[in-house]
Every structure is written in structure tokens, then in C-alpha cells.
Amino acid sequence: MTRAADPHLAQPVDGAVRPDDPELAARAAELVRDAVLGDLARRVVAECGADVGLVGVPEPLPGSRPGSEGMVLRHWAGTRADLLHDVPVPAGLGLGGRALAERAPTWVPDYRAATNISHHYDAAVAAEDLYAMLTVPLMDGGTVHGVVYASLRAVVPFGDVRISAVGTLAKAAARALAGAAAWNREPPRKAAPVPPLTPREHEVLRWAATGRTNPEIAARLGLTCNTVTGYLKSAMHKLGVRNRTELALAARESGLVS
């Protein structure tokens, strides 16, 4: 198995208290993730009758296009060699890449003979003497936290019982990973209070935010250009900005204009 994974740690952490220190929260989230995924690979073998359990972790892949999906096989149990260790898998390639791309379980009774998947990993699969393979994405809402593989060294169809058993483990792991991921997110910051604007300042600001010039605003509101300039300068001072561009941005961010 990979990286030390204490099975006792691999429990859902829904509702757990987020550590106050951001670095501690990030480290805690990483430790929980490794424990959960390492334990998942082991349990697929121990409880679901698989010969090999693998877990792919979503990561940016070297040389991939910005925004493209991919994962790396970071956790394993039952392997005899290391050809499936730390293997990068772009979305869509192989059975696991297909599960990642389609957000759905996929399986084949004989990986090497399958005609509905790419065969980029045949050498590594053959080295492990694997045939039947099931892959299940670890889904939490629309977020994919990884893909778990259950593989056998025999050509056999996957029945509902085994598919359901692996799916149940995947769901439990996804819940735990979602809870750990929440620790690593900064709590929402409260917007700084905005000094109140007068009705005229607010009205002039609203038109300035649409790109109107001072003479246009003055004509629309029946004011002089100097008066419009005075209102805008006052609004800028209250919002702590230096020019009309910053003023428009600050007005939208603070909700003063839509």
C-alpha cells in the first residue's frame, strides 16, 4: 500500500471543526485525504474481492493544457510490481480516465480485449496480470475527488453486488474528502462597511458607473458640472478610491450599483 495510511483516520469528517491556522488546516486536509484514499485502496481488496485496488487523485498533469482534467494513481493495494504506481491518467484515457471524464462508473470483464476504451496502459495492466476492472469516481455534488479502481486477475463480469460494494466505499470516501476539503478553504471574509452616501451622491455614482460623462450626468439630473464633480469626489473619498474606474469597481463590489 502507499504512503502510511491509518485506517482509523479514514472516517467521514462531516461537521468537523476547521483548524484556525490556514497552514495547519491545509496539512490536516492533506493527511485526511491520504488516509482516506489509502484506506479505500486497501478496503477494495479486503472487502470487495478485488485483487488490486487503485485510487487516482486529480492533479494537473505535466504538459497538459490549462483547464484540462487528469489524475495520478497515488494509492494502491495488492500490486506485484510498480508499473501502475504514480501513473498519470488524462481524462478520457483508459478505464479510469473514462470514469473521470464521464462522472460515472465504468467496467469491463476483460480490460485487454475491451473495444470501448483506449489501451494506453496495456503494458502496465499486463504486468499485473489484470483482466476484469471496475472504476468508480468519488463524487461530491459536481466535484470529483478521485477515481477508485477494483481489478481482478481473471476474466469475470462484474455483478451488481460487487459494483454496489465498491460504490458504497466510494461514496463514504467522497463524503470524508469533502469534509477535509472544507478545512482547506478560507472562511468567507466580510465586506468592509461602506460609509453611507447621500441620495445625490448615490444617484450621480450610479450614472458614472454606466460610463456617462460629467456633462451627460449634469444634463440628465439638472445639475451643474461642478456639482456633479463635487458629488463624485465625495463618493470617491468615502469609498477610498482615486479615479472613476476604481469608483465604478468599488461601487459594484460593495453592492451600491448592480
Shape: elongated
Secondary structure: number of strands: 6
What value does the Rg take, in angstroms? 28 Å
The termini sit apart by 54 Å
Weakly predicted, low-confidence segments: 1-16
Kindly estimate the percentage of residues that lie in beta strands according to DSSP: 5-15%
Q: What profile does the largest beta sheet have?
A: 6 strands, antiparallel
| Alpha plus pi helix count | 8
The SS-based structural class is alpha+beta
Strand order of the largest sheet: 3-2-1-6-5-4
Name the average pLDDT.
Answer: 85
Q: N-to-C SSE series? A: HEEEHEHEEHHHHH
Seen as an oligomer or otherwise, the chain set is single chain
3D architecture notes:
The protein is an alpha+beta fold and 258 residues long. It has a six-stranded antiparallel β-sheet, sandwiched between helices. It contains eight helices and six strands, in the order αβββαβαββααααα. α1 (22-48) packs antiparallel against α4 (160-183), α5 packs across α7 and α6 (214-221) crosses α7 (225-239). The protein has helices at 22-48, 94-102, 122-127, 160-183, 199-208, 214-221, 225-239, 244-253, and strands at 52-58, 70-77, 88-90, 106-108, 133-140, 143-151.
Task: State the gist of this model.
The protein has 258 residues and is an alpha+beta fold. The protein contains eight helices and six strands.
Indicate the topology:
Elements: H1 22-48, E1 52-58, E2 70-77, E3 88-90, H2 94-102, E4 106-108, H3 122-127, E5 133-140, E6 143-151, H4 160-183, H5 199-208, H6 214-221, H7 225-239, H8 244-253
Antiparallel strand pairs: 1-2, 1-6, 2-3, 4-5, 5-6
Helix pairs in contact: 1-4, 5-7, 6-7, 7-8
